[in-house]
Recover the amino acids of this structure.
């Protein structure tokens, strides 16, 4: 009775794809921190609204471009993931209900 | 410009929308009839544009006013959704996936479906949504009324009357296109297309005003940046707390606002569109907010002090004589407001009809009639009418709010209050998607807590002191309890009222939700659903879920007919029959009545849920099939089925392993038996041979003796030979007898006290007689002399002699050395006899203790080959053992035995 377990180590290509997914998850956090920056600058009172506006729109364009770049490969990852993609690890509570069913 | 132009323009625009919507609707119908999907109508572009319903009149007019009052803070409202879309659209996609799988019709439906199809939760979320959205709809009405007013300052115009007409007109439009049919997928092609067109109109309008401001009024981007810098005000300074709080709130709102849920999840045609929207929607938001600040600065510079900044977009071109642009801006604002009102009222009407009106109606029918199913009537008409009524009610409420609040407050604050209200659904929604432990009790508690705090701390005070909450209560708290002041709950003072309410409502909401979930125990249906929701993206789980349906497996009676009758009333006769027919065929049956399997009930329930919501669909099926709802026992059955299969296979595995082991043992035993049989044969032939040799010589010599002519000398000689041979024969027989006695354990042991030293001396002396011509060096190792023995000394000596004689006989070394090493450990004595000969080959080591086993020629050995066999039996009888010790550089035997033999244990055998 052997289980096709998800491999612990992946080849280069799947590894890249996983890191891309991680990057997408990380992007909003990065964006949030960067959006908060003007709130921190205010204490110095150095920058004016105009400069802040330029910064924020620049940041906005950066986020949009990154999102556009990663959206296509990410979509294909998700499409694959539904078919024959690598299996994710079973969550513990789920495993408790179904046990470790034989294949 | 006068109302004479404005009103026809607005009406013309509405007619244009009508045409677009009905064309789209017809085209979708035609394509559906032709069997293909409406591809353009359902493209990622249209999907993204329809998401722009996020940008309402609040954005179109209010953002400029917001920027005029607070600088860049307006950006947070668009950056929050941007963050969600650029990275976490996996979350949105999960929502869409679940929405499609469960045929979700609204956010209230999704949440109530996840928590055990509880209609109570649906009602709570619906009421919350109505409470939160009403001000927002009022906001749209207000902005339309204001925009009319801005053009018609010289004419006497009642804004309230105008707002009422607008509300009525929108209600008619929404009813016409939002409730045309009761679609199983709850999708409105016409409306979505109209919304997408409106998205383009409002974007173009705002961009036009912006471009005109930057390149017409100012001298390009550099100039406008300089003007912004010049116009910088102290109020524009970024407030860190609000900055962060509103970014968060806007990010939450994009997930929970009913109208966003409607366009994002319910109207979604293809899950993959979400990935395009991940960058296209932020792009749209950015374009919408790009020129807000320039317009605000231009308005501040050009318009009189008292002008309403919320209307700069409109009044600025108007005041500067750009009438065409002003008209475009007016239409943009009009389309922003109408699109929001249409979608929001459709979403809310769906919730209200599915969770409030239809359940109440059902309950009344049930109470009135004993057989509810037969007398349901046409549900479709009922549901559609309920929606129409709900749309009218919602727009009426919006108008009422506008009327009560006086239509005077800034647009932004109303919008944020609405956001904060819907944000109360966030903990429950996230719990629904990611936490299997989230339970109905927790969800109800969390929602009620959050909604109460929001109402008390933000919504009701928003009417101003003295309107709903008394001024005294606002200032000192109820019953003068300072800790319960609406704007300073639990002593948290000085915080912005929005952040204060947001903080307390969301944290108390989450606290109650989590605690309630932790302490409660969800029902079986809820547990099935929680697994379906949380694992929506895990394809490997699908197979396991086959058994875990929402219905029990109990055998069915003639319920299929009732179910068909009911389904016909909701889905329409044709669709319902088709569905039943297809299901029956899937089960391999003819006709229209499939078996009522849990699987079928599940599918039917989802089909119905697409029209009337999960909770209602579940309730209606329950009415017919009665107590067939899934129970904990069913769940356990599913779980134990898999467990049993596993256990069985594990048992089989163990059994087959055991069988293999047994087979191996049997094979070994068989080999052993064969070997023994061969041995027995050879034993018999050996023994015959051994007996025959002396017998032959005895017979031969006795024949000689029978001759007369024999000398006395010969007589003596032959008689001795005969005697010797008979002695040898006797010894052989003695040995055999001895062996047999020993093997049967019938030997009498004669215990004596002695020392090992004595024994070895005696054995060495006795064995010297064997091949006396050879000289052996004997090395003695170990404290042999000190070991006292209480055992059968005679027998033990016999063993030693045998071993020593063998060594003398077979050791083939030039200068033979015999090492005798003695050890004693815990009453066990070990004596090793090691010589320096070539030893015994490995393949023979197992044989040497067998009877008649001789490695060399019989004559050379001069024995019957029983010696070691006897030794082994003796040692067993003495409670010890004799074994060959390989790898010692020669033949080596190890004799182990207890120093004191316990007679009792031996005698007992």
């Amino acid at each position: 009775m052997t289980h096709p377990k998800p491999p612990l180590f992946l080849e280069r290509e799947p590894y890249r794809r996983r890191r891309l997914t991680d990057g997408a998850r990380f992007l909003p956090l990065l964006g949030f921190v960067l959006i908060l920056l003007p709130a921190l600058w205010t204490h110095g009172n150095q920058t004016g609204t105009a400069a802040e506006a330029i910064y924020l729109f620049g940041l906005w364009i950066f986020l949009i471009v990154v999102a556009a770049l990663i959206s296509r490969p990410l979509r294909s990852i998700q499409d694959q993931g539904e078919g024959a993609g690598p299996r994710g690890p079973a969550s513990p509570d789920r495993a408790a209900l179904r046990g470790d069913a034989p294949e | 410009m006068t109302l004479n132009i404005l009103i026809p323009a607005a009406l013309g625009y509405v007619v244009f929308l009508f045409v677009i919507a009905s064309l789209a609707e017809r085209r979708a119908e035609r394509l559906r009839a032709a069997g293909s999907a409406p591809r353009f109508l359902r493209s990622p572009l249209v999907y993204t544009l329809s998401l722009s319903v996020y940008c309402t009149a609040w954005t179109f007019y209010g953002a400029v006013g917001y920027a005029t009052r607070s600088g860049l803070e307006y950006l947070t409202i668009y950056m929050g959704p941007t963050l969600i879309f650029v990275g976490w659209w996996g979350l949105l996609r999960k929502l869409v996936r679940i929405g499609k799988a469960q045929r979700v019709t609204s956010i209230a439906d999704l949440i109530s479906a996840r928590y055990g199809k509880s209609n109570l939760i649906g009602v709570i979320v619906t009421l919350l949504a109505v409470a939160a959205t009403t001000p927002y709809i009022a906001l749209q009405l207000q902005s339309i009324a204001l925009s009319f007013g801005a053009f018609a300052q010289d004419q006497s115009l009642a804004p309230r009357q105008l707002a009422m007409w607008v509300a009525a007109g929108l209600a008619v439009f929404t009813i016409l296109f939002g409730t045309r049919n009761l679609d199983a997928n709850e999708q409105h092609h016409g409306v979505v297309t109209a919304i997408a067109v409106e998205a383009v109109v409002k974007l173009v309008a705002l961009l036009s005003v912006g471009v005109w401001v930057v390149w017409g009024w100012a001298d390009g981007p550099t100039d406008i940046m300089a003007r912004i810098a010049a116009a910088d005000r102290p109020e524009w300074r970024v407030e860190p707390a609000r900055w962060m709080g509103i970014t968060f709130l806007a990010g939450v709102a994009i997930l929970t606002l009913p109208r966003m849920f409607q366009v994002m999840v319910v109207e979604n045609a293809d899950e993959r569109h979400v990935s395009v929207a991940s960058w296209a929607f932020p792009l749209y938001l950015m374009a919408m907010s790009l020129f807000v600040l320039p317009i605000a600065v231009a308005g501040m510079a050009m318009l009189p002090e008292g002008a309403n900044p919320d209307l700069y977009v409109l009044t600025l071109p108007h005041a500067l004589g750009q009438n065409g642009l002003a008209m475009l801006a007016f239409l943009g604002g009009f389309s922003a407001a109408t699109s929001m009102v249409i979608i929001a009222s459709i979403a809310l009407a769906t919730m209200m009809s599915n969770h409030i009106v239809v359940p109440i109606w059902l309950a009344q029918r049930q109470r009135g009639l004993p057989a509810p199913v037969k007398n349901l009537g046409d549900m479709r008409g009922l549901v559609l009418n309920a929606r129409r009524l709900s749309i009218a009610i919602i727009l009426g409420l919006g108008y009422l709010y506008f009327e009560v609040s006086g239509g005077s407050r800034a647009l932004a604050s109303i919008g944020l209050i609405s956001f904060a209200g819907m944000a109360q659904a966030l903990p429950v929604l996230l719990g629904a998607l990611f936490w299997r432990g989230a339970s109905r009790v927790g969800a109800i508690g969390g929602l009620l807590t959050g909604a109460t705090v929001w109402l008390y701390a933000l919504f009701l005070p928003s009417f101003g002191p003295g309107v709903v909450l008394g001024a005294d209560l606002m200032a000192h708290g109820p019953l003068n309890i300072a800790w319960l002041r609406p704007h300073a709950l639990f002593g948290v003072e000085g915080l912005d009222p929005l952040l204060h309410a947001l903080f307390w409502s969301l944290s108390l909401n989450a606290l109650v939700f989590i605690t309630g979930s932790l302490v409660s125990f969800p029902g079986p249906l809820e547990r099935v659903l929680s697994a379906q929701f949380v694992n929506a993206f895990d394809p490997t789980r699908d197979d396991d879920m086959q058994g875990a349906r929402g219905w029990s497996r109990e055998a069915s009676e003639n319920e299929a007919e009732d179910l068909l009758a009911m389904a016909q009333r909701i889905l329409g006769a044709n669709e319902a029959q088709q569905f039943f027919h297809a299901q029956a065929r899937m089960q391999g049956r003819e006709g229209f009545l499939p078996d009522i399997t849990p699987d079928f009930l599940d599918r039917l329930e989802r089909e119905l849920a697409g029209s009337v919501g999960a909770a209602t669909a579940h309730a209606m099926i329950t009415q017919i099939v009665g107590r067939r709802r899934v129970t904990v026992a069913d769940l356990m059955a599913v779980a134990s089925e898999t467990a049993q299969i596993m256990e069985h296979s594990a048992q089989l595995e163990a059994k087959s392993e055991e069988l293999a082991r047994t087979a191996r043992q049997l094979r070994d035993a068989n080999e052993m038996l064969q070997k023994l049989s061969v041995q027995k044969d050879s034993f018999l032939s050996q023994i015959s041979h051994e007996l025959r040799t002396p017998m032959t010589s005895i017979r031969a010599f006795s024949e000689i003796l029978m001759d007369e002519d024999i000398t006395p000398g010969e007589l003596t000689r032959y008689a001795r030979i005969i005697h010797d041979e008979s002695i040898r024969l006797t010894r052989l027989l003695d040995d055999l007898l001895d062996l047999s006695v020993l093997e049967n354990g019938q030997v009498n042991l004669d215990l004596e006290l002695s020392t090992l030293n004595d024994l070895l001396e005696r054995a060495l002396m006795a064995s010297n007689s064997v091949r006396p011509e050879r000289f052996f060096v004997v090395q003695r190792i170990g404290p042999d002399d000190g070991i006292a023995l209480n055992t059968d000394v005679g027998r033990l000596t016999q063993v030693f002699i045998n071993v020593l004689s063998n060594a003398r006989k077979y050791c083939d070394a030039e200068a033979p050395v015999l090492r005798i090493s003695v050890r004693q450990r815990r009453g066990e004595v070990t004596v090793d006899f090691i010589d320096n000969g070539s030893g015994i080959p490995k393949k023979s080591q197992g044989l040497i203790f067998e009877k008649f086993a001789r490695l060399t020629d019989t004559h050379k050995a001069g024995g019957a080959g029983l010696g070691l066999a006897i030794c082994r039996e003796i040692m067993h009888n003495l409670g010890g053992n004799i074994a060959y010790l390989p790898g010692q550089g020669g033949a080596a035997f190890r004799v182990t035995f207890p120093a004191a033999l316990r007679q009792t244990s031996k005698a007992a055998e």
Summary: Residues 14-79 of chain A form one domain. Chain A is about 70% helix and 0% strand.
